[in-house]
Specification:
The protein is mostly helical. It has one domain. Helices cover 71% and strands 0% of the residues. The protein is elongated and about 65 Å long. The two termini are 35 Å apart.
């Protein structure tokens, strides 16, 4: 059996489970919401520079925490869509199908372990965050710490899915050929 016919037999499954598709939609919707609030916060700050009566210190805090929200909410989404930092270079150098599967499986196990540790730390931040508030809006920090908790918990679930799917060849989100003119 040739390498190309072997790879063709191990194409990725046609579709993800419904729960993972739903989770990706929710994460993407939250990211869009945070992007919108980030944009509004920044535009409000700009407006406040030119119209002093419109100046509001809370706009900067909203923009800052919206950026934090985008960053952490998209962790799981990027892992699920193969948009995270991967071992694509090493995977591309591996000549045999089995070596690529081992590389992808090891990377997925390490990613799962990392996401589990970060989920645990986010849980610790969340559970202890009700005693402190943000400086301007006085929002309990626990409400902000829930964002990394959601992102890393989702990342853990999707990284486990990467372990299961390590035997399937999946295209990277961005390849070296995509960067060429």
């Amino acid at each position: 059996m040739t390498e190309s016919s072997h790879s063709a037999q191990h194409a990725a499954p046609a579709q993800e489970p419904a729960f993972l598709r739903w989770l990706a939609r929710v994460e993407l919707a939250l990211a869009v919401f945070f992007f919108f609030t980030l944009t509004v916060g920044v535009l409000w700050q700009v407006l406040g520079r030119y119209v002093p009566a419109a100046n509001w210190v809370g706009a900067g805090e909203i923009a800052r925490f919206s950026l934090v929200g985008i960053t952490f909410i998209t962790v799981g989404y990027l892992i699920g869509k193969n948009g995270q930092i991967t071992v694509a270079v090493i995977d591309g150098l591996a000549k045999s199908y089995r070596a690529r599967v081992v590389i992808r499986a090891i990377a997925a196990v390490l990613l799962t372990a990392l996401c589990l540790v970060l989920t645990w730390e986010a849980w610790n931040l969340f559970s202890g965050g009700f005693g402190r508030t943000t400086p301007v809006l006085r929002v309990p920090l626990a409400y902000l710490y829930i964002l990394p908790l959601i992102g890393f918990a989702s990342g853990t679930i999707l990284a486990i899915g990467r372990i299961v799917r390590a035997k399937y060849d999946e295209p990277d989100a961005l390849t070296a050929e995509d960067t060429k003119d």
